[in-house]
Design goal:
The protein is built from 18 helices and 12 strands. It is of the alpha+beta class and 483 residues long. The strands form 4 sheets. It has a 5-stranded mixed β-sheet with strand order 1-2-8-5-3. Bound molecules: protoporphyrin IX containing FE.
Length: 483
């Protein structure tokens, strides 16, 4: 049977959704009480061990299909936007926060926005932006150097998020926000409240906040207002630049100017709300994801001295002489081992461990009929760590598996989908990889990893707050001898 088809599964499948196995639901509440939301991904992975790669839950009185089979997940993700859409509640929660953009758009509206967004993230555009990426990385180096000098532990997530916000604002909006050197009221400190609130609201059985603002919602409103102020400032600055230099419209140097200049064949432009929505979408899409992945990668590398030493040797052979930061864009392509470490970190600690979708029409899954509107939770880490595909060491951090040649990496690429799959594959993936290469090479070249872990010295717990992050991850650095 063709395993790339959404109708294939190794095990025989029950003929109807109601016959799927799964944990027994409680009366009225279904399986909700069994799901600890911040650890929902781990619970769903555990149930996949128990019930197999296709099972059923009941939430809010509705049946939910949970899918942990790689080829079937890929089949669904590829059949978008026509066959499947993002879970509707995600769109309504994000849009009412002002994030109406490419992440929540569907159908032809999505196609149009996607074309515009993609053009700003292609490798050619990244190459033009590279000098400002170097500047932001140098700033990051200064903040790390100070912490290394004093031996102070670095709150890794917060620092990395400042880096990713500065990079995204520079690349996508042409603005230099410098949150790395700003105080505690920096944009990042408001932005990092948004993902947890999205996650909280999409999982509420009832949208109470539309009728009653609890203290937590009022506090969030204040953070969101600050984020919107920044978004409108980015737009106003871009408009000023374009008014001063009208020729920018013909070859926009960043996403925001491309969105402002965009006209469809019929002359219609993106509306104001969609422009602001995409600015917020890209800010959010680029922040936690990249910062959390870097945090996990540093944690895993610190535990594997041989891998870290190999990475350091590769970086030393790539960065020129006395330079502290990689300055040549072409050389970022050459860091094969470092890139393998990142792929391995994303395989074992995917920051998007669940993708939620909904059928846009009556369809079938592994031969089982599904009605339009059926919700599927795709459990992304199970296929990426399946011993049947990866062998007995599937759960181990072994970056070399990405460099083995032959069928190995191809099978891995099919099994591990950290950036999603199909037409909605993450448009920021090249940028994310370049950013992560800049940060890891900066640290490898100039610092020694003294400690990467929690205050108690243990491994950080995983928490899902729309993106999955390491709890309480701290890093202590020392200057590398001779640097
Ligand atoms: C390690 C870093 C990142 C990871 C792991 C990641 C992962 C993902 C995933 C899993 C999706 C959903 C894909 C799907 O539905 O098939 C996605 C979508 C998206 N990502 Fe990323 N992402 C990362 C970095 C970024 C960056 C740096 C940006 C932009 C600056 C970005 C912008 C977006 C946008 C706009 C979408 C929506 C695409 C659409 O619906 O068409 N991401 N990302």
């Amino acid at each position: 049977m063709d395993r790339s088809s959404p109708d294939a599964l190794a095990e025989p499948t029950p003929r109807a959704l109601k016959d799927l196995p799964g944990p027994r639901p409680w009366p009225l509440l279904g399986n909700l009480p069994q799901l600890d939301l911040p650890r929902m991904h781990e619970k769903l992975e555990g149930w996949a061990d128990e019930y197999g790669p296709l099972y059923r839950l009941t939430l809010g009185g509705k049946p939910i299909v949970v899918l942990a089979d790689g080829p079937l997940i890929a089949g669904i993700l590829r059949d978008r936007p026509d066959g499947w859409r993002r879970l509707g509640v995600i769109g309504s929660v994000i849009n009412e926060m002002g994030g109406d953009g490419v992440f929540t758009a569907e159908g032809d509206d999505w196609r149009r926005q996607r074309r515009l967004v993609m053009s700003a993230f292609d490798p050619g555009h990244l190459a033009r932006f590279f000098p400002s990426l170097v500047r932001v990385t140098e700033r990051f180096d200064r903040s790390l150097a100070e912490a290394a000098r004093t031996g102070e532990p670095i709150d890794l997530q917060a620092q990395l998020m400042r880096y990713t916000v500065d990079v995204t604002a520079g690349l996508a909006f042409g603005s230099d926000v410098n949150t790395i050197e700003a105080g505690s009221d920096a944009l990042q400190a408001h932005l990092d409240k948004v993902f947890p609130m999205i996650y909280r609201r999409i999982n509420m059985p009832f949208p109470y906040w539309r009728h009653l603002r609890l203290p937590i919602d009022r506090a969030f409103d204040r953070h969101l207002a600050e984020v919107h102020k920044a978004v409108h400032r980015f737009i106003a600055e871009a408009r000023q630049r374009m008014a001063a230099e009208p020729e920018r419209a013909a070859r926009p140097p960043n996403l925001l100017e491309a969105l402002l200049a965009a006209r469809d064949a019929d002359g219609s432009a993106l509306g104001e709300a969609q422009i602001a929505g995409n600015v917020l979408t890209v800010l959010l899409g680029g922040e936690d994801t990249t910062a959390n992945t870097l945090g996990w990668a540093l944690f895993l590398l610190h535990r594997d001295r041989a891998a870290w030493d190999k990475l350091v040797a590769e970086v030393d052979a790539t960065v020129d002489g006395d330079e502290r930061v990689l300055r040549d864009f072409d050389r970022t392509r050459g860091l094969d081992y470092l890139e393998a470490c990142l792929h391995e970190a994303m395989r074992l600690r995917p920051v998007a461990p669940l993708i939620f979708v909904e059928a846009r029409r009556d369809t079938t899954l592994a031969g089982m009929p599904l009605r339009q509107g059926t919700i599927v939770f795709c459990v992304m880490r199970k296929p990426a760590t399946d011993p049947a595909v990866l062998g007995d060491d599937a759960a181990e951090f072994r970056p070399a598996r990405w460099l083995d040649g032959g069928e190995g990496p191809r099978a891995l690429n099919r099994a591990a989908m950290p950036f999603g799959a199909g037409p909605r594959l993450c448009p920021g993936r090249y940028l994310a990889l370049v950013e992560m290469k800049m940060v890891l090479s900066l640290i490898a070249r100039n610092y020694t990893l003294v400690e990467v872990g929690t205050e108690s010295g243990g491994a950080p717990a995983e928490r899902l707050a729309f993106a999955m992050f390491p709890v309480g991850l701290r890093m202590r650095l020392a200057p590398r001898p001779g640097r």
